[in-house]
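Reading a protein record of the kind used here takes little practice once its layout is understood. The fold follows as a row of integers, each naming the local backbone shape at the matching residue. With these conventions in mind, the following record can be read line by line:

_____
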Amino acid sequence: MTPSHSPSAATGAPESTAAEPAVQAAPTAGGCPVAHGGGGEAAPLLLGGDRFQSDPIGLYRDLRREHGAVAPVVLPGRLPAWLVIGYRELHQVTSDPVLYSRDSDLWNQWDQVPENWPLRPMIGKQESILYTVGERHRRRAAVMEGGLEAVQAHELRATTERLADSLIDDFCGSGEADVIADYAMMMPALVLFQLFGLPDSEGRGLAHAINDMINGGERALAGQQHIRECVGRMVADLQTHPRDHVTSRMLRLSGHLPGEDRSVITDEFSATEIIQDVLVMVVAGHQPTADWIGNTLRLMLTDTRFAASLFGGRHSIAEAMNEVLWEDTPSQNIAGRWATRDTHIGGRRIREGDLLILSFAGANYDPLVRTDQSALTGGNNAFFSFGHGEHRCPFPAREIAEIVARTSIEVILDRLPDIDLAVPAEELTRRPSPWLRGLTRLPVSFTPVPAG
């Protein structure tokens, strides 16, 4: 559950940036990547294309060899940016919010951006916590974390188990299922709705609405509107009929409900801002967690190192989940940070207002920190999959994501102990997105079992 992840999902923007060539020359406007494709260097990569899905390890290796730790890239519309793929460089950028700001108003390319630019909803200024900076961001983050800290781990596990059993009951008698559509893409949303106080009766419909937003198709805007209206109604109702949910606690912390010590947090945040932040947490928390479930199950079904867990053992589930966060992280690349002044990083001259895209996947593959790429990652959790610095995924949100993902995997392996991949592993495909990495489908077969 990561508010720094996939703001496009929260706005209904399509994820794919395809439909342009994989490599092209870049403009020099604003001084950003002036050397794109010049000086004998390879032409910059368009942020998108098949290799982000089919060969990310090779892609980041080639980028590192050709460009170093900070690679020039172009966005749709031939807009230049920098892709930070070095581990140390990414740590430097995320550790310095003054030099590398989250304020997208600083971008020196806005005069080149058309109104219908497909990434405008993701990179453009928003009301949510994603684009606030400085002390206001810290206070707003305190409201968010304060609400999440009330979640009890044992209650969360029990809720997740109940909802997982309910979904599995729908398909366990058939002997086959698509783990992505029937399970992984439903689980996090259903759990988050419970935590934030959205009505049980609307749970599955809201989960489908979120998935419509994320998929970016013709139903994306309708899905966005549906979830926004539902959250708005819930916040309005909680202000007159408060209940024990994360949203109620956030409303108390921000002064909209009585009964909370507000010695640190003031009432400067409007109910509209609370609605925006609930949307961010629910939507941005859903997709990466769903992909974490799907990518881990794929690994366990295709890699013999984790086969023991498919026969009732649980000892390697956590290891497989950790492996995914290094090798197959759901959050591949995040937009972004903007330089507040001219600077240098990774041997590159960065101009004021340049956009830097954070490549969590590229940093995780950096040979300077991963000297043996084939080794099991074990308990090493120094990955960048949850971000770093002020705009990292809040720690309570990360704990929630881990419990939801692990419990979801445990339940399906317990209920369907002989689950197996129903198609050759090489036929599995990824969604066409450079931002989030997840499967389009994961067909499985198993011995039919009765529901309940």
